């Protein structure tokens, strides 16, 4: 089983430099600059198509080189921007990969990290930095009413562990996890075996970018037991 982290494309929230981190605001189909909620911007849709095409090429290359039976599963946060990203990935895969691609599945635990009192505020970069500075001191903190790094770690790694239970003999499954910047940053930190206070030390995932990840050797050994 191979896990691919895929951050949503550039969104209308990114466009406004606005934090949209709650289920209430992130899943709405109204409001926002266009009155359609905080889904993808036109720039984001183009980004996702290009990135999904490169991921499809990666999967095809793997299948060709290993001659293994390959399956694809797409799991997505229920936010509008992540669901739109997941559906664009699915559409691209349908035309690029010679296999059945199941429709994306919504997974609540892949949702955005909640940023408490900064919800719907701008400018997002300054507010994120204030939270990240506290993260580097204490991954359990809930200052400003934010969801702690530890809590995000627990729910996102839980998604990975749950999927690992579904391994099928004789098939290689690519699991695409479509989520948000902080959620994916924290997840890959945990899979690397690092403490949560170090999550900003990893290379950041830009919008619509993807990265294949795996457990570090020590944790992988535990998962094989």
From TrEMBL:
It comes from the Eukaryota. SUPFAM superfamilies: Phosphoglycerate mutase-like (SSF53254). InterPro entries: His_Pase_superF_clade-1, His_PPase_superfam. Signal peptide: none annotated. Pfam families: His_Phos_1 (PF00300). PANTHER family: PHOSPHOGLYCERATE MUTASE FAMILY PROTEIN (PTHR47821:SF2). This is Phosphoglycerate mutase.
